[in-house]
Give the backbone structure.
Amino acid sequence: MEYQIRPVGQGDREWVLGVIRHWGADFVVTRGRRVYPQDLDGFVAVDSAGQRRGLLTYEIVGDQCEIVTLDAFEKFAGIGSALIEQMRQMASQHGCRRLWLITTNDNLDAIRFYQRRGFVIAAVHVNALSESRRLKPSIPRVGMYGIPLRDEIEFEMTL
């Protein structure tokens, strides 16, 4: 599959909101705060037919860049890797020294994915989802593979 990575544009905002709502709300929770990805900068992977195949949203604060969301709608096609690489390059160009993200303890596929792309575990926030559920009650108690959903795992890459 051929695709291009381009910045999220104004015409993508409703689509981004639809992607996020698939997760049960119009926001995500990261480190105890609500974030609205449809309002963030990001990148979209688009195929040759103009179909959106992936999304990455991010937030830069100081010299730190947080990947807030990452979605590749087809696994093992290189979409997630291309989005991460575009983000890494852009963050470096903006003077960021750290690229980081949060995933949950049940997301084994993401844990594998991030480590294979050079991210390391920077912290494990034990029972962080108890607080997250106060902000977003729709977060389930049991996640992928039947694993109890409790902890946030923070990954980072030094730039």
Remarks:
- Residues 3-158 form a domain with the Aminopeptidase fold (CATH 3.40.630.30).
